[in-house]
Amino acid sequence: MNVTRCQVRCxxxxxxxxxxxxxxxxxxxxxxxxxxxxxxxxxxGKNSPEVTDTAPVSSDxxxxxxxxxxxxxxxxxxxxxxxxxxxxxKEETASDDPSDDITFSVGAAEDPDPKDDIETTDAxxxxxxxxxxxxxxxxxxxxEPADIDPINNLKVAESASQIMTVxxxxxxxxxxxxxxxxxxxxxxxxxASASIGSNGIGKTKEGDRKTPKGKYHFTRxxxxxxxxGSQIAYTKVDSTCFWxxxxxxxxYNKFVKTSEVQKDWNSAEDLxxxxxxxxxxxxxxxxxxxxxxxxxxIFLHCTPTGGAGCIAVKESVMKSLLQQVLPDCVLxxxxxxxxxxx
Length: 342
Fold this sequence. Notes:
This protein is an alpha+beta fold. It is 25% helix and 19% strand. It folds into two domains: 1-43 and 75-101; 147-339, L,D-transpeptidase catalytic domain-like (Beta Barrel). The protein contains five helices and 13 strands. The strands form three sheets. The chain has a five-stranded mixed beta sheet. A five-stranded mixed beta sheet has the order 6-5-10-11-12, covered by helices on one side. A three-stranded antiparallel beta sheet has the order 8-7-9, with no helix packed on it. α1 runs antiparallel to α2 (74-96).
């Protein structure tokens, strides 16, 4: 009898173990079914047509369209209930058998195509380019007439590179030296007071104490002092140097050296013994033809003398003139009104 009871208990225990195993299998099967359902719903969600809002799409590339599902849709409610039940079942199973834990990862929604975020504007499709304006060369700035010295209006200014004017008024005058600049205009380089013939200008003969009038050049530079840096060939005179003023001499109105020629004159200027007047001097080519009696020895030299017909300036001015006056300098001697005619 005891054996029979023992057998019954063993059999009953075996049946209980069998049912327990079956329950485990059923639980696992239930989990597998739930997994299958979840996967099926996920697949259906991806393949279902996309619901779009009928509202106009914003042109703002940074804005995103949001699609809201109808909360009253039965299908959505059922899906949410199923997923919730699945989660509860997983929690119960995990407490019974840790080896049956299963982790699911839900993939994030794919980003929209980046190309869709690029906004195309009319400027991007416009293949034409605007041409930059061409910078026109600026016209050379011309001097205003008020800025140009009247000396530039003279006809002689067209060909000359340097001009000296002696504007006479009685027995005095104003001497001005002009140099031509890079722009072709004459500019004042030096101006000083001067003394001329005591009888003014318009020399016609020897001894009339007038300074010649007209256009001239300089032929020689000389002086009793050393060469200060003359632009024209300079001669330091000595006791042999003379300028003949005897109209009967073959050397009339010429520079001579007694050491080189035979004396045939009765009068001549002793260039080395004329005081300070000839410390520095420039010879003017008046009466270059050496016409007897027409006048001779007309110089631009140092003060104090000058009343006989020469032009005299201060020694400092004369020294500066020697350093600046060029061989082709044009000398004009006249009144202010007369100067305008050259």
